[in-house]
Amino acid sequence: MSLPSGLLPSDAAPEWLNKGDNAWQLTAATLVGVQSVPGLVILYGSIVKKKWAVNSAFMALYAFAAVLICWCLWGFRLSFGEPLLPFWGRADAATLDQKSLLAQGFAGLYPSATLVYFQFVFAAITLILIAGSLLGRMNFKAWMLFVPLWLTFSYTVGAFSLWSPNGFLFKAGVMDFAGGYVIHLSSGIAGFTAAYWVGPRMAKDRENFPPNNILLTLTGAGFLWMGWTGFNGGASYAASLDASIAVYNTHLCTATSLLVWLCLDMFVFTKPSVIGAVQGMITGLVCITPAAGLVQPWAAIVMGLLSGSIPWLTMMVLHKRSRFLKKVDDTLAIFHTHAIAGSLGGILTGILADPNLNRLFFGDDPRYIGLAYAIKTGRAGAGFRQIGMQFIGIGFVVLVNVVVTSAICLLIKLVVPLRLSEEEMLVGDDAIHGEDAYAVWGDGETYDKSIRGLENFAALKSEEMA
Question: Membrane topology type, per the record (predicted)?
Fold first, then answer.
């Protein structure tokens, strides 16, 4: 086999390359990709009303593809390139240059190409999570504009600030092992903010929005759960001890959270809810993410107990009592499952992070210590400093996403409507895409032919108003 032009035989296996780490990182990245495609494509397409199945799934698929192109052209370097500002990198053509891609990356013992791919799937799933707040009414053309704009002006700022070795919050010592802040807090806040600007679904959809296929919802949730092995396991940038404990803690916290949510549903509502169990699973996955490789297994169980109960309380109790929260139509409750759970995980990381595990990830830096261990070892000041930094990280991510997301929505509104028309919202997929999710009658026809092509919109509108 001939080598690419310009490469010597020795370049095929340079001294810095660890083939095991490279193989694991590529595998972990693919697992994260599977969370989105097909994971969230299936979950979104099945957890909504049948008339929104195609549009919801397609929003996820489009975001995955659009993010990849933007990421390779400018997103990766804005997030991890040479510093332009304390919170933003300098865009250049390095991700299109063979020599740069095959050189060692900024982290890990493998080429930069592996890092570009690994970080892409994280960026993509963040945009797809935002879509969960907007299902059932956002104009698809507006979504097509929103994805590249938000990736460029919001995601890259958070990623550079918290994950890049040159980022100001990384240097300050904020701990975010695998994306509790960069991905989940940012998607929860951005989704909630965008939902405010887009406006709510039709009243009929808000009141009654049953899943069209719960078994497929569980299938999508299964891809999400198992794919999280790569999500948190790959964050250590090596097939290491830290990766092993991160994977172990991830599943331990998730199972605990699911069971706690399930028990609360049974105690309060008397029935074990499948959708509730999925929500508890997600909050467990999100909560452990900033801490996965930094806490001991007993702490992962504690985090599962809290992630299964606190987001449940905010979603099932506080949300219903807050006039503002009820006003904003967050379709899949991304604010609770990601913003609340991600913030909770970040705070608990500041309390429960084990300094011995911190050393595996951050090296010999005495700043990184959970408050519980700091008090135990007589270093309470360092522990309170860490908690303070965790809250500063939360504040920064919230501020950036509220401001930038609002600006993007208002800008898009000048070009195309953010919201679908009443006719399109009433009919759904057939009006937007000319396609239906299921052919359930005759030779590929839908059961209720009266809604196709808006033939009877006036009659349907009268029924809706009634």
Answer: Multi-pass membrane protein
Task: Kindly tell me the burial class for residue 444, based on how many C-beta atoms sit within 10 Å of its own C-beta (0-12, 13-18, 19 or more).
Answer: exposed
Strand, helix or coil at 83? strand
Return d(Cα 363, Cα 365) in angstroms, integer.
6
What gap in Å lies between CA 214 and CA 339, rounded to an integer?
25
Q: Cα–chain-centroid distance for residue 258?
A: 18
81-111 pLDDT, tens digit per residue, is: 999 999 999 998 888 889 999 998 888 899 9
In terms of DSSP H, where are the helices of 132-240?
Answer: 140-150, 156-163, 168-172, 186-198, 203-207, 214-233
Q: Which two tokens stand for residue 329?
A: 């139509």
How many residues would you count in the chain? 466
What three-state secondary structure class fits 124?
Answer: helix
Per residue in 239-268, pLDDT tens?
999 999 999 999 999 999 999 999 999 999
What is the average pLDDT across 391-419? 97
Give the 3-state secondary structure of residue 227.
helix
Q: In the prediction, which pLDDT does 450 show?
A: 44
Contact 307, 284 (CB under 8 A): yes
**pTM confidence score:** 0.91
Report how far residue 157's alpha carbon sits from residue 364's, in angstroms, rounded to the nearest whole number: 27
Amino acid identity of 87?
Answer: F
Where residue 460 falls among pLDDT bands split at 50, 70, 90?
low
CA distances to 19, 28, 61, 211, 257 from 234, rounded to whole Å, are 15, 5, 23, 32, 22
* Of 193, 207, 188, residue with least CA distance to 138: 193
Distance in angstroms (rounded) separating the CA atoms of residues 299 and 311: 18
pLDDT of amino acid 446: 53
**217-246 CB burial, b ≥16 within 10 A, e <16:** bbbbbebbbebbbbbbbbbbbbbbebbebb
According to CATH, the topology of domain 13-413 is: Ammonium transporter fold (1.10.3430)
pLDDT over threshold 70, residue 431: yes
